[in-house]
Amino acid sequence: MEGLVNTEDRISHLPEALLLQILSLLPTKDVVATSVLSKQWRSVWKMVPKLKFDYKSNRSKHETFSGIVCRLLLSHKAPVLESLHINFSPDDIDAAEIGMWIGIAYASQVRELVLDVYSDKGSSFKFPPRLYNCETLETFDTQDLGPCTCPFSGLPQVP
Predict the structure, then answer these.
(1) pTM here?
(2) Contact 101/69 with Cβ under 8 angstroms?
(3) What is the model's pLDDT at position 16?
(4) Pick from 121, 132, 124: nearest CA to 149
(5) Which of 39, 94, 114, 141 has its CA 20 to 30 A from that of 157?
(6) How far is the C-alpha of 127 from the C-alpha of 27, rounded, in Å?
């Protein structure tokens, strides 16, 4: 059995729906990294129905966190964005940038929006007004939310 190496690429032969389901369990940073595997994989990540961005792990010397989020949201091609989870700090990102993320997500017909807002400096955060009027949004969740202004009346919140 010495020297036997199986070089068959089995994962690329999985049905696309299963592949997208598997990829949707990973952080977006790792999902996008799969685009370097082969030509076939170059655009697979763009159809993943769930995106997760983490401020602490998505840092780059060449691009801001907000720039990364905007670029990847604009490149996303799935007909519906089932879930968008963004972990960020209002200490380093202004409301206009967050409003831009939300606008792009709404254009992608986001169904679940999770904003995990944390602040090392105790900064308060006011949700952009456009957050309050999305027809496709079914669930809005905030995690570890410090001081904020969030006057929701019509959206269900996850406890």
Answers:
(1) 0.78
(2) yes
(3) 87
(4) 124
(5) 94
(6) 24
